[in-house]
Amino acid sequence: xxxxxxxxxxPWAWVPTLYFAEGVPYVAVMTISLILYKRLGMSxxxxxxYTSWLYLPWVIKPLWSPFVDIVxxxxxxxxxxxxxxxxxxxxxxxxxxxxxxxxxxxxxFWLMAFASATHDIAADGFYMMGLDQHEQAYFVGIRSTFxxxxxxxxxxxxxxxxxxxxxxxxxxxxxxxxxxxxxxGLFIAFWLYHNWILPHPSEDGDGHAKTPxxxxxxxxxxxxxxxxxxxxxxxxxxMLFYRMPEGLLSKVSALFLVDAAHNGGLGLSDGExxxxxxxxxxxxxxxxxxxxxxxxxxxxxRRWLWPMVIAITxxxxxxxxxxxxxxxxxxxxxxCVFVEQFGYGFGFSAYMxxxxxxxxxxxKTSHYALCTAFMALSMMIPGLFAGALQEAVGxxxxxxxVVLACTVTYVVTATLDIDPEFGKKK
Length: 426
Prior knowledge:
By secondary structure, the protein is an all-alpha fold. About 80% of the residues lie in helices and about 0% in strands.
């Protein structure tokens, strides 16, 4: 029997695992790499510089998304990228114990980043092809939930596992190598499973309906109309600078939590970090995001814009308190991280809703992809110099600078003109 005419497979069989698989490599590249390099003795300056460049594939992914549309099927891209991600994870694991670990791990992290960004393009397109409109609406919360579960699994359980393995192996390098081998095995399993379980939507053809010339013409039109929208300067400034304080904070805060006390850090073990940031922090982020979405859907984005701005900025003060007090209580540290991440999740809702607002009209899918490129760039640029700034001034003053940088968030928000009805329940 032709696979395209086989009985339809339940979305429950593949949507959760597909978005779990989407979340793991992103966390590995953006979060786990920070802790790994810190444990291997790199300076904060080098860690934030090298890992911030890993945002680049997500910045430029709209440039090759048309290629994903015209070459092969979305299904093919998904399973191919999953085995490539597995190979990259295995490469990281293999090179960690080597003398050339920095060059080797960075090479494989770059491969993983490009494969993960391509997987995102294919998975999101396949989601729309494999489900009807009702199913898309029903499973949107499911996909987000499993992406968050992947975040807790990766930055919580896996980082904690690395800490536990250090006790058994008495080696930082081999414990982290084993963790990455575990992730590589997981992605081989995803590759096998999704190669079998993913449906074959008739709409997911080989992409030859459009010629390369037609794709290029459409892409050029998309870019032109993107920059012809009302309030384009204010919109782009908002996309780039609304999260600038978080761009400074996100990488350094992780390093601060695990840095030794004599360096001004809190000295958390990998297991404690997995609990504090990878579990409690992610729960706070998720709850804040859900609450933000509920509030905006009830009263509209404009009504909640400024409360969300306050929520994403003021909680940054907790890191100033932590840097000066240096508490040893895991409960106190967890509470502070929860507050900051809850505020970020609540305030980030405004950012995501504005990207949707800006993308309205013709080419809204492509325009949203361009918006997400600016979103990745907004985290990449501050991260490039965040570590150097922190090492120059120390953790306490760095976190004060982050709080002062929040004024930029207020300035770019004040320039926006948003329809009061946008986001309200009709």
